[in-house]
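Hello again,

I reread your note about wanting to compare the complex against the isolated chains. To keep things tidy I'm splitting this into two emails, and this first one only covers the full assembly. Below are the input lines as submitted, including protein chains and any nucleic acid or small-molecule components. They are followed by the predicted structure of everything together. The single-chain runs will come separately.
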Amino acid sequence: MVSLPLNHLDLPGPETRPPAIDVHGLTKSYGDLVAVNGVDFSVGQGEIFAFLGPNGAGKSTTIKMLCTLASPTSGHATVAGFDVATRAKSVRRHIGLVFQEQTLDDQLTAEENLRFHAVLYGVPHAEVEARISRVLELVALSDRRKDLVSTYSGGMARRLEIARGMLHTPKVLFLDEPTVGLDPQTRALIWEDIQRLREEEGVTIFLTTHYMDEAEYAERIAIIDHGAIIALDNPDVLKAQVGTDTVAIETADDEAALASLKRAGYKVERTEGGLTAFVVDEEAAVGPIVAAAGVPVRTVRAHRPTLDDVFLHFTGREIREQHGEAVPMMARARGARRS
Amino acid sequence: MTTLSTAGSTVPAPASPAAAPTPTPDTIISDEIRVVGMVWERELIRYVRTRTRIVSGLIQPVLFLFVLGYGMSGLVGTTGGFNFRQFVYPGVVAMSVVMTAMFSALSIVWDREFGFLREMLVAPVSRVSLVLGKTAGGATVAAAQGTIMLVLAPLVGIHLTPLLVVQMIALELLMAVAMTTFGVFVASRIQKMESFQVVMQMLLMPMLFLSGALFPLNGLPGWLTVITRLNPLTYAVAPFRQVVFAAQNMSPAARARFPTNVTLFGHTLSIAVELAIVVVFALVFFVLAFRGLSRTE
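Full-complex prediction:
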């Protein structure tokens, strides 16, 4: 069962709320290539859940199956309570989709794009106006309502797409690489939008990303590689599994420092060019360690495990942000490209 | 369904639990009709918003009507007060309808390129509604474009009556429906934008030339006759010219000089048969267009 994060005390407990997404043994093969290989997970209602992995790892294929855009080779999945294989239309009615590629009509205004979407998704006529105002407000685009989308920046267009995905009050909002190709400021804005949506509309958010820093916003992360989930938990728990915080120092006399730090009760090791202390909280430990060293300290480097370390730990590789592809996987990534 | 949380509220929407999916039918007819209307409306908005398209859609037919019209009139001469410009006028109007309808349908290629097609295809609606809306929209703008051409009628000596105007608009609509469904079918098979121009040049122009829009289809060599009879446009252009000519005060000599009838296996087709053929083509193209779009995504 899914453990809901603590800041969801205002929602009923998980035992009374069925998962928003429930996946068992989901598999997708294209010929010989197994893009997704028997994944299991479930996402609680109101949760922000991130799928993390390099391109070609199976993220997009999984999202496509959950959105009923691809049919599973085997396995079983329900989204918003509907089986993706047998109730595709009901699933689509209850999910919002934001693709990697832009899917707006830039010859229409923001409002016209939203109205079009409202009709496609059967939003009752009487509610359309209020709902359009509401979602534009959620992404702070109310003042650009009557403007042609062709006048929008890339970030604004993406935010309009997020608003559009929320228009028909979906149970689950799927975001496939929502911030890819955007500048850091816009990415931060989009994350504010996403968190506001969750807080104010109670929507479950399922997203994929290969930006490690963004995955931190999620309550739970599934790391997917070669079509399989290799780790799934809260970001802090995952980081704790990889290792502890460290403080590395270089001193005038490493021998003396090592001895006095050990006397002070620190777990310290000699490393290349200095000493490394293993601590609970690197930030808080820097001052005491410098004081306890007993000799002049030349340099200090404090380090807390990041999701990069987590990814490296579980896959043996680093995600390369520039290309979105992990280093030794070029051939496989090409094979798994979306058709 | 889900209650809307009011603006400014920070309380999560009391979403009805996902486990209680209301057993609504997957397809609701009134919703599908709204979708047809919305897709139609979008075509109109885009048409009205791109004035260059309206103007450029006029230039080519005007060129054919006046430049080719005057040029050929010298060669063909006047029979019983009737000349080539009057003969070619219905064909040129048809040409403008056909080109606008094709262009509208082929905008699906743009929609694919710019992603909007995906927004439509992943929606929980029937593809029949999407093709119907697209067809209705394309037909409306094409008929509008053809109707704008009516203002040129007096300039070439074509006499318009209220009945004729109604007949022409009705036939324009039918022709446009057939051509839009044909265009949607073609567009569903085009994956790349670059192919668009090729299709317009290699498909549309030959279809127009071989439809009888610009010259009578009688007395052509056998191979050319066969091709013209296989062309769906032939059966749309002929009735169009027939109703226009029926409203003109033409001498028997002029009728003989500028024939309008289409023969098939030695039989002269009536307007009703010609229209029935167009309807059959439209239905076939509609099914192909639907299937073409269903293959996508």
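For quick reference: The beta strands of chain B are 263-264, 267-268.

B.
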